[in-house]
Amino acid sequence: LKNNMADQPAEKERLMALLEGKMADKDIKDSDLKISMEKIAKTLGENGLTVSIVGITSIAGLVSSEVLRDPKKNKGEQDIPADEAFELFDVDGDGLIQKLDLEVFLKLAGVNFDDVDEQANTIIDETDSNKDGRISRTEWRKKWNSVESLRQFRNKVSDEKLKANMVAKYGQEGPKHIPLYAFGNKMSFYRLPSYPTLPKDRPEADCVFFGCPFDASSTYRMGARFGPAAVRRASQMTNFNYAPWIGRDFSKMRIFDAGDAAATPFDIETAMDQVSLYAKKLWNTSKTVIGIGGDHALTWCLLRAARDFNNDQPVALVHLDSHLDTGDEYHGNKFSHGTALRRAMDQGCVDIGRSTHIGIHGSMGSVDLMEEDKEKGWLTITLDDFVEKGPLEVAKIVKERIGDAPTIISFDVDVLEPGECPGIGFPEPGGMRCRELFSFLRALKGLNVIGGEVNEFTPEYDSNEVTAHACAQGAYEIMCLALDNVEDPNV
Question: What is the pTM of this model?
Answer without folding.
Answer: 0.75
